[in-house]
Structures are given as C-alpha cells and as structure tokens.
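Hi support team,

I submitted a single chain yesterday and got back a structure, but I'm not sure I'm reading the token output correctly. Could someone confirm the output below corresponds to the sequence I sent? I've pasted both exactly as they appear in my results page.

Thanks,
R.
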Amino acid sequence: MVKVLAISGYKPFELGIFNNNHPSVLYIKAAIKKTLVPMIEEGLEWILISGQLGVELWAAEVVFDLQTEFPELKLAIITPFLEQETNWKEPNKEWYTNILMQADFVDSVTKKVYEKPWQFRLKNQFFLQKSDGLLLMYDHEKQGSPLFLYELAIEYQKTHDYSVELITFYDLQLIVEEEQLKRSDF
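Hi R., thanks for writing in. Yes, this is the structure output for that exact sequence:
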C-alpha cells in the first residue's frame, strides 16, 4: 500500500505551456486527480513534491482541491535547496509562495542555496527513500527533465517494494476525450 506518494513530471516549458490558464493544465490536473482518488481511498496519506514549476505545482493544486473531500490527505514540499524560486518570474514566485503557505510541511533537502546539480540528484534519492511510490508525468516519446527521476526510480524498484506509475501523453489524450464527452450531449 502506498502511504506516501512522490509526484513529479515535466516543467511547463517542456510541454509548451507558458501560463496556468493553458487548456492543457486542466487535463493534466484531471489525470492527476483520476490517479490519486483511488489511491487515497486505499490509504494514501501524503503527497511529496519538490515544488518545481509545472506538474508538481499543478499536483499541489489538485491536492488542495481533494482535501475538501479527503481532509486526511497531506502535502509535503521538500525542495532540493533553499530559495529555488529566486530566478523565477514574479507570477510564478507568487504562485509558488501561495502553494507553500497551504502545504502541510515544507523543508529543504540541502539547507543551502543552489550550488551544483548534485542537489537535484540528492533530492531524487531522498524522494525515493521517503516515499512508497512515484507518480510521474512522463512519456518515453518525449525526453525531458523527468527522465532522471524515472531511471532512478526504475533502478530503485529492483531492490525495493516501490510503485512507479506514469501519466503518458496517451493517458492525457484519453482524459481529453472523456472531458469532451462530458461536455457533449452523450
């Protein structure tokens, strides 16, 4: 049973999304919700993200929505390093700060500002060790930043009871079709 689930995936620019009002964001959030609800019903207690822009912060918003129905669900944001938002644009900083304020737990893996890429690798290892499973928006057809976490999780799975679930572009296409059916007269 998955009690702690790490969630990650693409950054917005990797998906060609440049604002949170993009229609694709609704479908990504719907896919995350569709995956989470059965897991919550089976005992999922914590969602773990690092607070990066894109899939992770959209997942945080899904968690906040789900908390009205499942108040026992908690969100932990554990960043790879302090002040990760320093170079972000102002709207993204505000969005991030708003999400941090609503989270149930906030901390940082390394208690220092960004130094080198090893901080991201350390964060990925930490996430695998502190969770029972990973939900990753990743598609083998589109390489990108989630690849590193995916490969590490698959390797980790060889020696640990660890679940890895992907949300692929095909899954998103099914969500789009479901949503369109709901809106039509069928």
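A quick pointer for reading it: The domain at 4-183 is CATH 3.40.50.450 (Rossmann fold). Let us know if anything else looks off.

Best,
Support desk
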